Structure formats: structure tokens, C-alpha cells
Amino acid sequence: MSIHIGAKEGDIADKILLPGDPLRAKFIAENFLEDAVCFNEIRGMLGFTGTYKGQSISVMGTGMGMPSISIYVNELITAYGVKKLIRVGTAGSLNKEVHVRDLVLAQAAGTTSSMIKNEWPQYDLPQIADFALLDKAYHLAQDMQLTTHVGSVLSIDAFYSDFTENNIKLGQMGIKAVEMEAAALYYLAAKHGVQALGIMTISDSLVADEDTSAQERQNTFTDMMKIGLETLIS
Ligand code: HPA
Questions:
Q1: 157: annotated active-site residue
Q2: 197-216 pLDDT tens trace
Q3: Residue of the CA atom closest to atom 3 of ligand 1
Q4: What is the pLDDT of residue 216?
Q5: Domain containing 173 — which CATH number?
Q6: Which residues of this protein are catalytic (predicted)?
Q7: Of 18, 69, 96, 199, which is the most exposed, with the fewest CB atoms less than 10 Å away?
Q8: Residue 218: inside a domain
Q9: In a domain, 7, yes or no
Q10: What pLDDT digit, counting tens, does each position of 138-185 carry?
Q11: Is 10 domain-assigned?
Q12: What per-residue string of b and e applies to 102-136 under the rule 16 or more CB within 10 Å gives b?
């Protein structure tokens, strides 16, 4: 086992879906995977391995924010040999054309975090999605007729902040949404030479007054999970 994951070598598939919420990992395992077995309960960060359309797939929560996802992604890659990682999460819209329940495929992620800068102080490295995964997910979303935006997101450290004016300006510059994990995921994937993608559904808007019901949220999450799973096995 690694420090934060109580699995044995071989317990985790080389393809993994990463929701922030560990209970959503359980939901995915129960509703989409066959013969799912729980491989981690440390800190309640549930992880499962099962099969999807005959292929071995894992799913595990990451917690919220870049410090949390970085711990799990580091260990998944270096201790368990995971090669394809897809984050399925929520994001807040920064753009008036990006509505609640829409899908955002994060082609690139900027960040307010110093995590990457601490390792590369003299560079602003671009954090980008794996193109093959992005391309596959985009076409699946098109086939499912989902409203899908492809572009950059901003991965922030502080969920609560007072930067309303900045949010509007960032949206006007084409940044689709704000969330808290993609930049670290993309950086670690690049660092270790593996593939990663962030798929988000918009749960709230920072620039418009939009709301959504629990049932609507559940349906869009389910669509996102299908896209994530189909992209992983392609
Ligand atoms: N801010 C940051 N992360 C988020 C948000 C938000 O509004 N919504 C979902 N994830």
C-alpha cells in the first residue's frame, strides 16, 4: 500500500475515473461497474475496481482542491501504475454562455496555486489535457447531444473569494469555468508521462443567477460519468 491508499499492487486498474466526492465514486461503482470491489477506505476516500464493458476500471474520490487530488494522483501513478485518469467533477461558470448543467471539457487549466510554480519557479508551464482523451470525450458528448464547451478553466485554491469583477473579466476572455483540481491533475500527468482529462458539469454560475434541481444535477452527472467511462475504455 501507499501512504494514503490501502490497496495492494494490482488492486487498481490502469484506467481510473476521479470524482471529488468519495460517495460519488461509490455511486459510479454501484451503478456502472460490475463486480466492484472496494480497495480503499483510508480517510473515507472510497476507491473501487470493477469492470465496465469487460474492461477493468477503477473509480476513486480525490477530495477537494489541488493539495488533496495531488496526493491521490501521485500515489495512483507512482505506486499503482495508473496510466489514464479522468476527473469527473463540478465547476462554476465564469461565462454567460456557459450554463448550469452544461458540460465543460477542460482543454487547458490555469491556476492561482503555487504548487507548480514551486517546482518550476522560472516558468508558467501550460497545463493541458491529453488530446486523444479530449477528442474522444468531445465526440461522445456530441453523439449524446449534450451542450458541451471546450476551452480553458481556472483551477483555484479558495472556493470562497470576493473577486466578482475578476470573474467577469476572466469569462470575457473566454475562460469557461472555475474549479479546484484540473491544473494539478494535468501537471502530474505530464510530469509522469500519463494521460489525463478533466470533464466538468456546471453546478453553479459566478456570473449569472442560475439554479438547478437535484434531479437535473443527477442526470447531468450520469451523462458525464458515461462519457468518462466510454473515453477510458476507448
Ligand atoms: N468555485 C470553485 N469550484 C467549484 C465551483 C465554484 O463556484 N463550483 C463547483 N466547483
A1: no
A2: 999 999 999 999 987 787 77
A3: 179
A4: 78
A5: 3.40.50.1580
A6: 204
A7: 96
A8: yes
A9: no
A10: 999 999 999 999 999 999 999 998 777 788 899 999 999 999 999 999
A11: no
A12: bbbbbbbbbbebebbeeeeeeeeeebbbbeebbbb
